[in-house]
Amino acid sequence: MTQAFQSPGFAALAAGRAVETRLVEERWQAVAWDLGTDRRRVVTDRPGGVHLSEIEPDGEAIWWFDADSDEQGRWRREPFAGGPDGEALHGVPPGRPYGVAFDRTGALAAVAVGVDGASRCYVGPPAGEARLIGSAPGYLSLADLSPDGRLLALGGRPDGDDAVVLWRTDGGPAVSAAGGGGLRLWPIEFNPLAVLDPELLLVVEEDDRYTVATWRADTGLRRYPGLSFDAQISAGWYRGPRGVLIQHERAGRSRLLLADLDPAPVVRELGTPGGTIHDLSCAPDGTLHCVWSRESTPPRPLVLRPEAEAEAGTGPGAAVRPGPDPDHPGLDLDGTSRGRRWTPRPYGRIHSFVSTPPGRGPWPTLFLVHGGPATHDRDSYDPRVNILVGHGYAVVRTNYRGSTGYGARWQHEYGHRVGLAQIEDLAAVRAELVADGTALAGRTGLCGFSWGGYLTLLALGVQPDLWSLGMAAQPIADYPATYRGTTPALRELDRQLFGGSPEEVPERYRAADPRSYVHRVRSPVLLVVSRDDERCPPEQVARYAADLSRLAVPHELLRVDGGHYSRRTADHRSVLAAMVRFAGQVWPAPPHRPPRGDRPGGTAQPLEGGEQP
Predict the structure, then answer these.
(1) HSE on the CB side for 350, CA within 13 Å?
(2) What is the three-class DSSP state of 40?
(3) What number is the average pLDDT over the span 398-418?
């Protein structure tokens, strides 16, 4: 077995038991971990792997979501020590996983599933019969079940009327908290120690700040101004009656803080190495288990004890070496240069991570465009970057407007110019890299997956003079068609981005649709589609490919298996290999590089360091 995909899930009432999702023979599987003996038992053997696993609070059984290629399935359950598996809750129809939770003892379980465009929530004893508690159209995710099993906390659209919904398991009236008017709400989890008076932890976004808050039935929503941050946070209860653990994501790096809410928040930052914490969980003894990486270091376990220095590796005493500061240019052992760049624009500074091969540029340059859009590229390890740099390309990862990690205004305030604002940012970074001698003007291209693939196709049509290559995997190629065929959760995201559906704001969807500009595309295009992709259906990509054929634009359409996010590492390797091959065909040989002083823009400038103000 190799590294864990997620941090362990610990049994709250059985300190020696946990579940992990680990890579087993190149597929992610659920693994039972006995901490006392440090022995691991592979629970699942799914051909397509699994990506969700949980453990009951008493540690008696492991749950995992048994999904088919279109991401629909059922929760299954198996004793921790081994034995036959079965349905985790009987009577729950197959659907998309919208969340799972347990009460304090594990006597009652709750699951939310997406079925026929609606969100349904069921409760019941593990391995017993479930009963339907509620159903709502569209997408609601299950955040938690209160310790006494009386309340279900669900989250809808953060700025909508269903931002927070509380359903009673006894059938009583529901309670909701609405967002809107610049207010966004995210329910997190119930306080595990507040048994008689349930207390829900939330994150509130307003006034360009992200603030920790709580909710009780008698007092309503209470904000904690002392726990307010300038960029995205996640939070969770941490030991004690009022302890909270906060993860703050800013400009591509993570930090962890502990706070006591009463009498007034007292905040203490934990000593963590620079980089990214991809996942985090807390053991019953208060030890924090993370999956951590930085640009030059693959993901590895990081064990934190709040009263001690950070530890990493498979056992106590293994330390994470600080290494070079990624805020400034640095060289890996293979000569690869890595650094940060801030590109000034009237509306703010665009942050990019730039990795270049050994030696002197300029280089053929690929923008590896992240998806989402509500995510961001980080100071974290990405094997795609290493492979592309190893083939002689400079690789640029840009956190365009719409990315998280830079505050609410950067994420939201670009009107409803979906896609267009983002590719303007990519173009601005490209211009700077060409001017300073990093990128070859005639050999700059785009490579993206999912929403990053969408931006790739849009840029090829809107900015045909800038890009000489485009490679898009599982992309949006026809936005209105994708909206009609995608999942309820993504339709809700599109309504937030555009301010409505294609029927309500058709002009916005037309302006953002790659097919609106396909007649302007001139550069070679690689399209990768999955036969089982319900997020970005393959039919709309096939229509885009037919447009390219009609217009005699060089292109290749590659069909693969595995759905939108394959859980098989071999699938990811094959797609990346196809991209490397395609780029090598389009840019077949290293061009002649003129002396540095003869390049446009004069002498190359170092990458700018420092944090974004």
Answers:
(1) 26
(2) strand
(3) 94
Residue given tokens 């159903």 in the structure block: 135
User: What six digits make up the tokens of 13?
Assistant: 């009432």
What is the pLDDT, as a whole number, of residue 595? 38
Phi, psi of 411 (to 5 degrees): -75, -35
DSSP secondary-structure letter at 395? E
Nearest Cα neighbor of 135 from 155, 152, 151, 118 is: 118
- Number of residues assigned to the chain: 613
Given a cut of 70, whether residue 317 has pLDDT beyond it is no
Contacts of 83 (CB under 8 A, 6+ apart): none
Please name the amino acid found at residue 456.
T
Please give the pLDDT value at position 603: 27
Considering only residues 593 and 605, tell me which one the structure prediction assigns the higher pLDDT: 593
Mean pLDDT of 564-580: 80
Q: Is the dihedral of CA 430, 435, 438, 443 positive or negative?
A: positive
Is 212 within 8 Å of 220 (Cβ atoms)?
no
- Residue 574 CB burial class (10 angstroms; 0-12, 13-18, ≥19): middle
What per-residue confidence (pLDDT) applies to 569?
A: 74
189's tokens: 């989890």
Copy the structure tokens of residue 536: 């970005």
The residue among 196 and 43 whose pLDDT is bigger is 43
Other beta carbons within 10 angstroms of residue 409's beta carbon come to 12
Peptide bond into 600 cis (omega under 30): no
- Cβ neighbourhood burial of 138 (10 Å; 0-12, 13-18, 19+): middle
In this structure, which amino acid lies at residue 258? Answer: L
Distance CA 434, CA 84 (A): 60
Q: Are 198 and 146 in contact (CB under 8 A)?
A: yes
Cβ pair 565, 28 in contact under 8 A: no
Res. 597 pLDDT band, cuts 50 70 90: very low
Q: How buried is 425 (Cβ within 10 angstroms: 0-12 exposed, 13-18 middle, 19+ buried)?
A: buried
Q: Quote the CA–CA distance of 367 and 449 in Å, as a whole number.
A: 12
* Nearest-angstrom CA–CA distance, 188 and 155: 9
Task: Decide: 247 and 233 in contact? Cβ < 8 Å.
Answer: yes
Chain-wide mean pLDDT for the chain? 88
Percent of the chain exceeding pLDDT 90 equals 73
Tokens of 396: 């640029």
Phi, psi of 70, deg, nearest 5 = -100, 20
Residue 567: the pLDDT is 61
Q: What is the pLDDT of residue 47?
A: 86
Name the token pair of 553. 């634009």
E strands, 146-241, in order:
151-155, 164-168, 175-177, 184-190, 200-206, 209-216, 220-229, 233-237
Q: Is the peptide bond before 373 cis (omega within 30 degrees of 0)?
A: yes
User: Both tokens of residue 469?
Assistant: 């290559």
Q: For 197-211, what is each residue's pLDDT tens digit?
A: 999 999 999 999 999
Backbone angles phi, psi at 359, to 5 degrees: 95, -160
Element (H, E) at 251: none
CA distance 157 to 180: 10
As given in the structure block, the two tokens for residue 570 are 């071999």
Token pair of 447 as six digits: 């490579």
What is the structure's pLDDT at 217? 87
pTM: 0.87
